[in-house]
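Hey, resending since the last one bounced:
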Amino acid sequence: MKKIVYGLMINSGDADEMLWDHGVWETEEAANEYIESEMSTISGVWAGELKVNDSIPDAAEYDEEEMIECPLCGIEYNPEDVNTADYDEAVCINCEPGYKENMNIA
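The structure tokens again:
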């Protein structure tokens, strides 16, 4: 579901750009009020419509079966955070630098 908010826009010469550091407003009127009260001495700023995605209503869940335990630290990780291709055992991203260093010493 898309949500519409309003941000402050300027033309940078090549394209219209949003002034992200000033925030966003739920209504165009609120954005225009901010421009009038806080930026009245600056020309070339207007309220522009932005379409954003609402956050995912349900938190992402991982199946217990998909988790892989790192034998070095004993913590379970998502498969993306464990290197199972380059070593004889699964090594998590946190243990990998030390594991590589020990391999080079041996």
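The beta strands are 2-11, 16-18, 24-25, 46-53, 68-69, 76-77, 82-83, 91-92.

Sorry for the duplicate.
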